Amino acid sequence: MRRASTSSTRRATPTSAARSSGSCPIVVVNKIDRSDARAAEVLDEVFELFLTLDANDEQLDFPILYASGRGGYASESPDAREGTLEPLFKTIVSHVPTPGLDEEAPFTFLATLLDRDNFIGRILTGRVQSGTVKVNQPIHALDMDGKVIETGRASKLLAFRSTRRRCRCASPSTTARWRAAKAAR
Description:
This protein is of the alpha+beta class. It contains four helices and eleven strands; from the N terminus they run ββαβααββαββββββ. The chain has two domains: 2-95, no CATH class; 108-184, Elongation Factor Tu (Ef-tu), domain 3 (Beta Barrel).
């Protein structure tokens, strides 16, 4: 997508969208284990990119990690050549805010994937937008105008933990992805 600017034509990118929303980046310079690694040059290019995108001071004060995807490590030091990805996960947890969802609001769920299981029935995978849901609670499918197009119940709730699904009795709205099995009435 291209937008016209008075001085030049600039492309809208995920980086510019995140910057305009006020999100603060985490910069990971990858492939530092290679002999031709140029971590300092890449970091300068990233900084110039954010300056070009009119990032504010808070966004320019981004955390920096140096990593090797092949080696399976990340570090705050560009000289590291071994370790784990734990520094990356800790940085994400400490810098990315939790979703500001209202647990007192009515339950809303944005389904992004529809699946079917012969034992469970229809399975909806998506994200809890607000509220909570419990097993056997009535749920409704709405169209884009908010009209009820189908009714059913949440027969089983499963939360993703890594690549595994775990059974739940209720859905805390802070969980990013949920699978809700829906039985038609």
